[in-house]
Amino acid sequence: MKKRKNCIIYGGGGFIGSHICEELLNEGYEVTVFDKLYFDKRNISAFRNRVKVIEGDFYNEKDIKKSLKGQDVVFHLVSSTLPANSNLNPAYDIETNLIATIKMLDRCRDYKVSKVIFISSGGTVYGIPEKIPTPETFCGKPICSYGIVKKTIENYLFMYNRLYELDYNVFRLANPYGERQNPFVAQGVIPVFLMKLLKKETINIWGDGSITRDYIYIKDAVDCLLKSLKISSKEKLFNLGSGRGYSLNEILEIMKKVTGLKPKVKYQHGRDVDVPVNILNSNLAKKTFNWKPKTEIEKGIYKTFFYLKENYSG
Ligand SMILES: NC(=O)c1ccc[n+]([C@@H]2O[C@H](COP(=O)([O-])OP(=O)(O)OC[C@H]3O[C@@H](n4cnc5c(N)ncnc54)[C@H](O)[C@@H]3O)[C@@H](O)[C@H]2O)c1
């Protein structure tokens, strides 16, 4: 009988990690969730008894070494920074995210891990894109440390593959949204706005609402990540988005329609860290993995709203 593949998800208790975990379990993989000490188990509660859980620190070499033994596939989803706060202390960003990742890759070599999947950022690695939708070949210059570090990790993955044959895929994710995304963190406009709507609070928008992003429903993104486990492609790096852009004002209009609630909105000065438009060309992922996003934004927003209502109101 063929052995079931062991997958470890660093940051598996978070928004994206918990969806990857759920889908891996559905497909019959053995899954280990690695997350912080005493991390909130709510995201994995529905399948907690079917996964191994390790509480540790991604920045602790011993924790990484112990957790990697016997793993075939690594999903790397830990980040100590967000795009908006990464410029406050770039040295910290490098020390935590870059250095710790390289140390983890060294242990992957020791333990002969067969594949590393790294979630990069389609919203920041291109800087201010000159081509919309932006293809992977566009060589942009990130305007935040978060994007620089993500791009540098991508380069190290390329190098480790070339030197040590460590297989990998990088997914430059657009703006994922959906159930279990934290509505109180400054990453994820959709749950943040929906939560404000639910609580009848004012929605603050940086700029005039014209900032345009490519939103992808989380289950569509995860579908592509899992397909990549079954295909060893020559291409390693992929954009992962819907290919369609919506301005913040358009998102608000959709929310009004879907929820029947009327938002209170306050427009503020724009932020330096926000590029005006970001839409990804994901044709390479579509072709390589025979994949396409299926969820219309109205439906995805409705599901997110329903989840927030169920879990946060009352
Ligand atoms: N959410 C987005 O919009 C988005 C877009 C593009 C890329 N990404 C990337 O995807 C990854 C996951 O994002 P997410 O939205 O799921 O974030 P999240 O905050 O929901 O999940 C991250 C998880 O990592 C855990 N973690 C953080 N530091 C840790 C440490 N030192 N040791 C162990 N665990 C630790 C957290 O407890 C959390 O459960 C990140 O690398 C992020 O940069 C996210």
Describe the structure.
- The protein is an alpha/beta fold.
- It folds into two domains: 6-177 and 215-242 and 283-289, Rossmann fold (3-Layer(aba) Sandwich); 189-213 and 244-278 and 295-312, UDP-galactose 4-epimerase, domain 1.
- It is built from nine helices and 13 strands.
- It has helices spanning 15-26, 61-68, 90-110, 145-164, 189-198, 218-227, 248-259, 283-289, 297-312; strands spanning 6-10, 30-35, 52-55, 73-76, 115-121, 167-173, 175-177, 202-206, 212-217, 237-240, 245-247, 264-268, 277-278.
- The strands form three sheets. Strands 3-2-1-4-5-6-10 form a seven-stranded parallel sheet, with helices on both faces. Strands 7, 9, 11 and 13 form a four-stranded mixed sheet that branches. Strands 8-12 form a two-stranded parallel ribbon.
- β5 (115-121), α4 (145-164) and β6 form a beta-alpha-beta unit.
- α3 runs parallel beside α4 (145-164) and α5 packs across α9.
- It is globular.
- The mean pLDDT is 96.
- Nicotinamide-adenine-dinucleotide is lined by residues 11, 13-17, 35-36, 39, 57-59, 77-80, 119, 121, 173, 175-176, 182, 187-188.
List keywords for this structure.
single chain, 314 residues, alpha/beta, Rossmann fold, UDP-galactose 4-epimerase, domain 1, 2 domains, 7-stranded parallel β-sheet, 4-stranded mixed β-sheet, 9 helices, 13 strands, 19% strand, binds nicotinamide-adenine-dinucleotide
CATH topology (level 3) name of the largest domain: Rossmann fold
Q: What would the principal axes of the Cα set say about the shape?
A: globular
Question: How many extended strands?
Answer: 13
Strand order of the largest sheet: 3-2-1-4-5-6-10
- Bound small molecules, deduplicated: nicotinamide-adenine-dinucleotide
Number of domains: 2
Task: Tell me, rounded to a whole number, the average pLDDT.
Answer: 96
- Radius of gyration (Å): 19 Å
